TrEMBL record:
It is an enzyme of class 1 (oxidoreductase). This is ferredoxin--NADP(+) reductase. InterPro entries: Cbr1-like_FAD-bd_dom, FAD-bd_FR_type, FNR_bac, FNR_nucleotide-bd, FNR_type-1, OxRdtase_FAD/NAD-bd, Riboflavin_synthase-like_b-brl. GO terms for molecular function: ferredoxin-NADP+ reductase activity; nucleotide binding. Belongs to the ferredoxin--NADP reductase type 1 family. It catalyses: 2 reduced [2Fe-2S]-[ferredoxin] + NADP(+) + H(+) = 2 oxidized [2Fe-2S]-[ferredoxin] + NADPH. CDD domains: FNR1. Its EC number is 1.18.1.2. Its cofactor is FAD. Keywords: FAD, Flavoprotein, NADP, Nucleotide-binding, Oxidoreductase.
Length: 275
């Protein structure tokens, strides 16, 4: 028998991206929403709630980057992101097609206002989100500090359609069953977490914009809590610009003052995207 040995073809040169991280998991939630996980640079330290710049190499050979909230908590060995798919969006028209093994660019400089350090101590914390604005809260809700700092944690999430709530719904279910959090905070920690999802354009158990439901007092009745007060309540807000402005006015009317890293107060706000 004649054996023909062939020299292995030279390995294709792997393109090296600056600040490259490898995608490990992708989940599509709706035709407009997906989440993915990727490797975390060993040197990346961040505070739960912060955002980083991520992206892909553009056709012009330059990185195409956008701000993204880190949805995973600071203790997680990987990073998670929750993303919109804008069909003609420069980044997400491409990013929505990533698969495990692909590389993304991640600039390791986390920043942001939705951090515990920007708030004064309080009894109850409210996380108010619309759409992908739930992403920073997916991080904060998995951070043990949230439960050690507050007696009660309320997350409200308003979306147009029921399917857009699914990421948050599964997140809350997984947190309630999280053994590590139960061990760190105590078995009763899950009772501290209240979840208030609402839809505006498709029928669901609770319909309406959270702002309208607060004005009507329905949220407080449903949850059995008093309206917000600066003595007891702290809030973080992340949604579209109109929502952020509207709820900011409402929080001020309740007597809460806006905080910052440099001057902690009662509430903080961040845009979920630029309009
Ligand atoms: C501080 C900050 C944090 C952000 N965090 C996230 C995040 O965690 N997840 C995320 O998906 N996006 C997030 N964004 C938005 C993100 O930076 C990009 O805009 C988004 O990825 C779309 O990029 P693009 O290049 O495809 O389109 P772009 O040109 O950036 O946007 C095109 C249009 O799409 C709409 N749009 C953009 N982002 C969203 C969105 N998230 N939800 C609904 N409509 C949107 C807007 O109308 C925008 O004008 C964040 C933005 C900011 C400022
Ligand atoms: N979600 C979709 O199915 C869809 C489909 C195609 C295109 N788009 C486009 O994508 C962009 C973003 O859509 P999105 O649905 O992700 O985000 P969005 O428009 O920010 O809406 C998310 C949620 O926030 C609510 N909201 C908006 N303004 C508010 C305010 N001032 N106070 C309280 N709640 C408020 C909306 O209620 P309302 O419904 O009452 O506004 C909706 O329930 C828009 O430009 C949209 O035209 C969305």
């Amino acid at each position: 028998m004649i054996h023909v040995t062939e020299a292995a073809a030279p390995a294709a040169k792997t393109p090296t991206l600056p600040d490259a991280q490898t995608v490990t998991e992708v989940r599509h939630w709706t035709d407009r929403l997906f989440s993915f996980r990727c490797t975390r640079p060993a040197s990346l330290r961040f505070r739960s709630g912060e955002f980083v710049m991520i992206g892909l190499m553009g056709d012009n050979g330059k990185p195409l980057l956008r701000a993204y909230s880190i949805a995973s908590p600071s203790w997680d060995e990987e990073l998670e992101f929750y993303s919109i798919k804008v069909q003609d969006g420069p980044l997400t028209s491409k990013l929505q097609h990533i698969k495990p093994g692909d590389q993304i660019i991640l600039r390791p400089k986390p920043v942001g206002t939705l951090v515990h350090d920007a708030l004064l101590p309080g009894r109850r914390i409210w996380f108010f989100a619309t759409g992908t604005g739930i992403a920073p809260f997916a991080s904060l809700l998995r951070d043990p500090q949230t439960y050690s700092d507050y007696e009660e944690v309320i997350i409200t999430h308003t979306c147009r359609e029921v399917g857009e709530l699914q990421y948050g719904k599964e997140l809350i279910e997984s947190i309630r069953q999280d053994e590590l959090l139960a061990e760190l905070i105590g078995e009763g920690f899950a009772d501290k977490l209240r979840y208030y999802p609402t839809t505006t354009r498709e029928e669901s158990a609770k319909m309406g914009r959270i702002t309208d439901l607060m004005r009507k007092g329905e949220v407080f009745e449903d949850l059995g809590v008093a309206p917000l007060s600066p003595e007891t309540d702290r809030a973080m807000v992340c949604g579209n610009l109109a929502f952020n402005l509207e709820i900011k006015d409402m929080l001020e009317e309740y007597g809460l003052e806006e905080g910052a890293n440099s001057k902690p107060a009662h509430y903080v706000v961040e845009k979920a995207f630029l309009d």
